[in-house]
Write the structure tokens for this entry.
Amino acid sequence: MSDGKRSVRVTFKGGMVGRLFKVNGSDRWYLSYWHAGHEYRETTGTADFEGAKAKLKKKLEEMASVRRGHEPFVDPKSKRLTVNDLLDALETDYTLRGVKALKQAKSHMQALRDAFGRWRALEVTPEAVDRHIERWREDDVAPATINRRTQLLGQAFRIARKRLGSMPTFRRLRENNARQGFVTPEQFEAIASRLRDPYDDLARLAYAIGWRKGELRPLTAANVDLRVGELRIGDSKNGAGRVIPLRDADGSLNTAGRIIERRLAARRVGDQLVPWLFHKRVGKGLALKSRPAGDFRKAWSRACIEAGFSEPKLDEQGRPVLARKGRPVLVATVRFHDLRRSFARDAVDSGNDPHVVCRVGGWKTMAVMNRYNIVDTKRMAAALSRLEDARKATPATATVAPFAQAAEARPRKKHGK
């Protein structure tokens, strides 16, 4: 019993010693224990002395297991960490390191916050994550998207590993997202001719050199050196710079060079010279001004639909979505990123060194480019043709002797030897 004392030293069998105490203004008992030279205090949540003793005994047994190395030590403050706290730390880490995928990561983090945000980090188990994966699959979330979410959750736990002592391992779904979707020159011209300035030239440059939309839109005159004949960017999605020649071997401008020359000439807006290669004019007369090219998904979708590359939009039951006038709502079947895939396929099929194509398009490794489902059909056909010619040129000679002939040629053994 405490006998009215507000601080009691408690001894248990086996030599375990702890302390229970009360703080001013509270009737609840608090427990005290030591680890690695530091005192830790936690509330027992009860004013009953015997109940507080039971919780102190459980805590001391837990610390004995920690000292034997059977489980990691987690301090009381870390036990209160929520998944929101872990994701906040991950977002700060991304910001400080200048991670380019921060915007997309925030979108995935929001889905994690909706699912686990208020959970204590120690409550998140692989089984709990599996149950949410099943719910996401029921909501038709793509496996690749689910993997990005669980990947970010794992990164958040890794940052907090020192505080939590350990981290769970989450399931990774199988992805079937090989890049598909290619555009022939005729199809591309049908779409590009329906795009307005500057998006027509932006699309033509993407089709010519295979760069990403996010790498083309910010281009300025400072990225161009027509005297040397080069287009340069100091940074890209994979963190590496890139150089593209704008002239052929004879010194004349190539396709990319002609597009860049045209964009440099279009930089003058009224009496101003804007820095951006791809900019949009707004206003009229004295109010005429310009701004950098922004998102043009609607313009791209409209051009694809007008060119005939579309299909009806379907609802959750697979039925066409109808507009107000009863006509089906159409969605584009060609994505802007298909231009990058088409560049990779066409550049390889035309006999170029795949490693050079990687450097032009900005793929860091061959494995990444191969995910664009590139099939070098011309080289495969040539290899099969050479194999067929070689087989025809080789005379067909028997290498297996008939059984009777082989038996006669085999020496006979004498009896008794």
About this structure: Residues 7-73 form a domain with the Double Stranded RNA Binding Domain fold (CATH 3.30.160). The first strand starts at residue 7 and ends at 11.
